[in-house]
Amino acid sequence: MTNNVFGTLNVARAAAEAGVERFVLISTDKAVNPVNCMGASKRVAEMIVQAMSRGAAGARGSGLSGGFIHRDGRPEVHTRFVAVRFGNVLGSRGSVIPIFKRQIAAGGPVTVTHPEMKRYFMTIPEAVQLVLQAGAIGEGGEIYLLRMGQPIRILDLAREMIRLSGLEPDVDIKIEFTGIRPGERLFEELHTEGETVEPTPQKDIVKLRVRQGEGVDVAWLEHGLRLLAEAVAEGEQRKVRALLLAMGREEPALDRVAAEAEAAPAEQRPAGMGCCT
């Protein structure tokens, strides 16, 4: 959480102060209606990038409220900030592919969360090329979405990898289902109901446009970041989780969320958040 939220904030502010020409945030489809810490922190990072963009003071709300986004309280920024949202990258660190390879090499079992779980996938070269192109066409404040084709069922991917290894699924290598963990879902979404998709000059990149009046509320974001920073400094993990999920879902009553998290019994934690560090 501190890396995705405050790391993004620090690097974005440094880029603005140094006059960097372009800044591209790598986001994820998990930022859409987030159900876990990673997705929520990436959604907050998207909002930070949008607030840092040119014209941030004119966004919905009362403007900057204490210099959390811009240290000197002034929104004059010439850096072009954009975010690029996409799914899983095959072969990257944390990808399911290396995990399946190790499990197959060990003789199994290959573990799959759920027989109907699906994810979007891209190759590393595809992702790198499209991210660079999105950064090049961005004017500032946009969220871009990379076209990833149809989602792939993880079970089908596991079976195909077993066959490519010269083995037979469920005969030579057993497949086990481990069950959905807290903070996981069967399908990932690409955009919210408040976002519409617009074409760009690059056929494999689309721009997400929010409905009029639904842009980032900079004053609300400033306040949320302040509450979140205080909770992190105090080591209040329940409050951190609750605030992060509320901010990721753009809930308005952040003070109430913080107060309820403080009042909750020590053993309670916000449902569905998974791990949060």
User: Which architecture does the CATH hierarchy give at level 2?
Assistant: 3-Layer(aba) Sandwich
Element string (H = helix, E = strand): HEHEEHEEEHEEHEEEHHH
Helix content: 25-40%
Mean pLDDT: 83
Looking at the structure, what is the overall shape? Answer: globular
**Major pleated sheet:** 5 strands, mixed
Overall number of structural domains? 1
Rg estimate, integer Å: 20 Å
CATH superfamily: NAD(P)-binding Rossmann-like Domain
Short key terms for the protein model shown above:
globular, five-stranded mixed beta sheet, Rossmann fold, alpha/beta, 277 residues, 11 strands, 8 helices, single chain, two-stranded parallel sheet, 39% helix
Task: Describe the protein in words.
With 277 residues, the protein is α/β, with parallel strands linked by helices. The protein has one domain (2-210): Rossmann fold, CATH 3.40.50. The chain has helices at residues 2-18, 37-52, 96-105, 124-137, 154-164, 218-234, 237-248, 254-263, and strands spanning 22-28, 80-86, 88-90, 110-112, 118-119, 121-123, 143-146, 152-153, 175-177, 195-199, 205-210. Strands 1-2-7-11-10 form a five-stranded mixed beta sheet, with helices on both faces. A two-stranded parallel ribbon has the order 3-6. Strands 4-9 form a two-stranded parallel ribbon. Helix 1 (2-18) packs parallel to helix 2. The N and C termini lie close together (6 Å).
SSE layout and pairing:
Layout: H1 2-18, E1 22-28, H2 37-52, E2 80-86, E3 88-90, H3 96-105, E4 110-112, E5 118-119, E6 121-123, H4 124-137, E7 143-146, E8 152-153, H5 154-164, E9 175-177, E10 195-199, E11 205-210, H6 218-234, H7 237-248, H8 254-263
Parallel strand pairs: 1-2, 2-7, 3-6, 4-9
Antiparallel strand pairs: 5-8, 7-11, 10-11
